[in-house]
Amino acid sequence: MRVVKISFLVLMILVTSFLVTGCWNYKEIDKMAIVSGVAVDKGKKEKIRLTVEIIQVSGGSNSVTSPKVITTEGKTIFDAARNAISIVGKKLYWSHVKVLIISKELAKKDVIPIMDWYKRDSETRFDVNLLISKGDCAAEILTGKILTDQIMSFELSNMIKNQKNLSKAPQSNMVVYCNQLEGEGIQPVLPTIELKKIANSKIPTIMGTGIFKADKVVGYIDGDETMNLLFVKDEVKGGVLVVDVKEKDKSTSVSLEIFKSKTEVKPIIDGKNIKMSIKIETETAIDEVTSDINIINQKGFEKVENLAEEKLKKQVTEVIKKVQHKYKADVFGFGSKVNQEDPKVWKKIEKDWDKKFENLEVSVDAKVHIRNSAELSRTLKVWK
Amino acid sequence: MFLLPILGYILLFFIDFKPLYKQKRWSDFWVNTFIGVVTFTMAMLLSFGVKIPSPEKPIRELITMLFGK
Amino acid sequence: MQKEQISDKEAIFLYASFLLGSTALVGIGGDAKNDAWLAGIIGVIMSIPMLLIYSRLSNLYPGRDLFDILDEILGKILGKIVSIIYTLFSFHLGALVIHNFAQFINTAAMPETPIIISMFFLGLVCIYAVRLGIESLSKTIGLFFPLLLIMIFIVQLLTIPNLHFENLKPFLANGLKPVFKGAFTAFAFPFTETVVLLGVFSSLKTKKSAYKISFFGLLIGAIVIISLSTRNTLVLGGLAGSLYFPAHVAVSMISVGDFIQRIEVTVAITLVFNVFVKSSVCLLVACRGIKKIFNLVEYRSVVIQTGLLMIFLSYIVYDNIMLMTYWAFKVYPYYAFPMEVIFPVIVWIVAEIKVRKANKLKPVEV
């Protein structure tokens, strides 16, 4: 019995020391090809051309990360992703992808073949930033010039994150996009990216919005229009409002920094008639005055506030009109607001919402409040 | 692959069946042996890659028949 | 052999942990979509009468487990038949829970590891725990469960920036029918699965505590389950319905200041512990059932083999993951209904009549 017990103990120790030490299919970090950014284009031979930026980590005391960009083709995304093995020699690791760039051409057809695998696979994550490339080739962006970071995808991801101080491109990730795609009465939007030529080098810039109808892009709006779109969608977190003030045949531009903004979109349902009422409330501060007109007083504040309100109202109305008549896609989610307010009415009008949206009456009301004038209590005075 | 369950069951014989036999708990021993034979057969079948039919199917079909959908 | 005892606090945690089981992962109220929270609350309210009946049963026969009670009330032969049914139910439930767990590990964390490995190792731990007995199991729970609660709470706090309250609207878009369907699912899985716990409540310290334990256990379990599944809806919106494991993705969206992120592993930790508790309890009750049916000396004699059988059953029970969720939401509520509602009600009525009769014969002693 003793022998059995001891031999059993030894066996247990051996078994545990082999089994519990770690995962049997572990991978060292320098043996992995970590993907940081993906760009999807239409392929030349096959259906899809996948370009990935991979980070190579070389170990040691001063570890170096160096990005490399490689391109593969395949029938589907997954096919192309696995085909990369024959180029890199390693299986790509997808959990650290920061950006997914979709080319204009593919976005025009449909994006589901791209999204599905990304949503489904267990290695990929939902918090990836989605972008549409406005240029011809999405892959070019990954090889563009990097200014501040070592790795392009990280720089792009920072750009998107800091858009909250600019509000000229919408924020989107897999969850947001899929909910917009599947949601009733709302159409998706994605931020756009393009390469701008600045001093002989091509630098990627994120600005503007791609407007979807179902799973196809139907048009683009620029950065300023995007800001107004974001006002309606209540996604403005910061940014600059520029107001032109005229006084005594002198004109000046006043820049207002947005600190807080809140938009209330309310459908007014009256039998079969539906109107949307939009109320924007923005808190700002004067951060720049470009002439010596003194507006830093109660009266001046009120004047600037009124002008800013007028301007905001006009701009927002213009963007809504443009989207309504040119793109005919309910990116503002007016339909979903109706659904949230009154699901029964929505059930009735759901089918011909597209037509209803085109002729929807929208009233915009804006309220701009100026909190302070930053650190200066007056404008610069010029001595004559 | 089929060696693994055999090894495991030889081990089990010492830690599970033998004490019962020694303590002369006959009903315990026989019930345990019966279940043991069943699990051993299952283990062997699994190690040979035989597909054992799942008991969920008849239950599922019965319930779908009774309650629909 | 001395009698094993559980303190009230440990029993409450055992109860809550059992409720959380695999539900915290799969979520509740499948059909109800964004009204899942309402379905959850209705499910809790629906299950309260049943829990009162279970507590009353354990109260009438203190120190006896489910199978003793069945034997006492339904007589030798009928009692044995119902005992067999409960043994199989508990056994099957344990296998389903193990399968749930392994499927999660296989889908989310280790797709290349054979699924039997994760089942086998969880099963081994359960066998070990059950052989040690209910007392050690509940002591473990008493130690770990509060930590888990704190962890769940912290993770809930961290998700606050990701909550989108408009996801709760439209309220009752498809009427009350899907909500009640969802509530019924929640009623059967997990709230009235606690009938299995009658099998271990024989070890309670005091006579009165069954009510208290059911109440507080249900309170903790229900609050956690409902808040988790509401969080899933709030974070993921419509997507929550199309994911097998919404909790995992909802937590993966957390990113606080760029350094608290990728904490999905907390979901896995919670899951592993609760699943361990649930399948251990199921295994324990199944073994006690076998002991009662065959009049064995001790339930420990059959633990290893029953546990192995449970592991193999969990391996063969579903072909794929679609079947698993289909079962959890569509088949299971009907399958479990007799065990969770019909038998307990009958047993309870008979028990009340018997007690009244006994009281009439004997003068009441207080």
Can you describe this structure?
The complex is a heterotrimer of chains A (384), B (69) and C (366). By secondary structure, chain A is an alpha/beta fold. Chain A folds into 2 domains: 192 residues; 161 residues, GMP Synthetase, Chain A, domain 3. Chain A has 13 helices and 13 strands. In chain A, strands 1, 2, 3, 4, 5, 6, 7, 8 and 9 form a 9-stranded mixed β-sheet that branches. A 4-stranded mixed β-sheet of chain A has the order 10-11-12-13, sandwiched between helices. With 69 residues, chain B is mainly alpha-helical. In chain B, 16% of the residues are buried. The model of chain B has no long low-confidence stretch (mean pLDDT 82). Chain C has 366 residues and is mostly helical. The model of chain C has no long low-confidence stretch (mean pLDDT 85). Chain C has a two-stranded antiparallel sheet with strand order 1-2. Helix content of chain C is 71%, strand content 1%. Chain C is globular, with a radius of gyration of 20 Å. Chains in contact: A-B, A-C, B-C. At the B-C interface, helix 1, helix 2 and helix 3 of B face helix 12 and helix 13 of C.
Helix amount of chain A: 25-40%
How many independent structural domains of chain B?
1
Domain tally of chain A: 2
What's the β-strand tally of chain B?
A: 0
Q: Helix and strand succession of chain A?
A: HEEEHHEEHHEHHHEEEHEEEHHHHE
The SSE order of chain B reads HHH
**Amount of beta strand of chain B:** under 5%
Average pLDDT value of chain B? 82
> How many alpha or pi helices of chain A?
13
Q: How large is the share of residues in beta strands of chain A?
A: 25-35%
Sheet having the most strands of chain A: 9 strands, mixed
Poorly predicted runs of chain A are none
Instruction: Let me know the average pLDDT of chain A.
Output: 85
Q: Rough shape of chain A?
A: globular
Evaluate the radius of gyration of chain B.
18 Å
Shape of chain B: flat
Largest sheet of chain B: none
Oligomer: heterotrimer
Q: Helix/strand/pairing class of chain A, anyone?
A: alpha/beta
